[in-house]
Amino acid sequence: MHSSLSRAVGTTVTTTALVLLAGGTAAAHVTVDAPGATQGGYAVATFRVPTESDTAGTTALTVTLPNLKSARTEPIPGWSAKVERNDKKEITAITWTADPGAPGIPPGQFQRFAVSLGPLPAQDSVSFPAKQTYSDGKVVSWDQPVEKDGDEPEHPAPSVTLAPGKEDGDGHKVSSEAADEDSEHEDETARWLGGIGLALGLLGVALGLGNVVRGRRS
Questions:
Q1: What is the pLDDT of residues 43-79, one digit of tens each?
Q2: What residues have CB less than 8 Å from 48, skipping those under 6 apart?
Q3: By three-state DSSP, how is residue 32 classified?
Q4: Residue spans with biased composition (Acidic residues) (predicted)?
């Protein structure tokens, strides 16, 4: 009985260790998070970049973008950002580079890189293939697609799921930014109409009081 119990405990410990190891490995991937991202809309995408090496730090990150019209990076102390465009002025990539003398991302640490971008493509998900450069010259490419069976590759590309965009009266999808602008215009128009109506109402009251006063005097 003691032998069986020992084997069961050993199996449980081994399984737990493998699970924790797998979880640690997955957590070390370059990932992206973009809450509220919609098809055709704008979003703030935050790339989480951990340093997996025990001896070298991360000194650069290049993220490929799906030919977007707009991309604005958030300033990060000790880092500079360069936006790359094609001949159509579309943004194709962003490279963050650690400043000379800056530590970059030391071993055992991670850094977040945020960028406001859009309009996002009209598809269910979008991938952002990335390249992570280390201080020892090693480059790790995070560009492998996730298999249809759900198995995660060794170096998966950062990706986000896009919710359906808003639609106009004709059933065409519009960006969230355009929808917000339309809403603001509608609110402003409503306020103007409300103000005009109030002014006309006050004018009517004033004219009515004037007629009453004149009637009493006569």
A1: 999 999 999 999 999 999 999 999 999 999 999 999 9
A2: 30, 31, 32, 33, 110, 111, 112
A3: strand
A4: 178-187
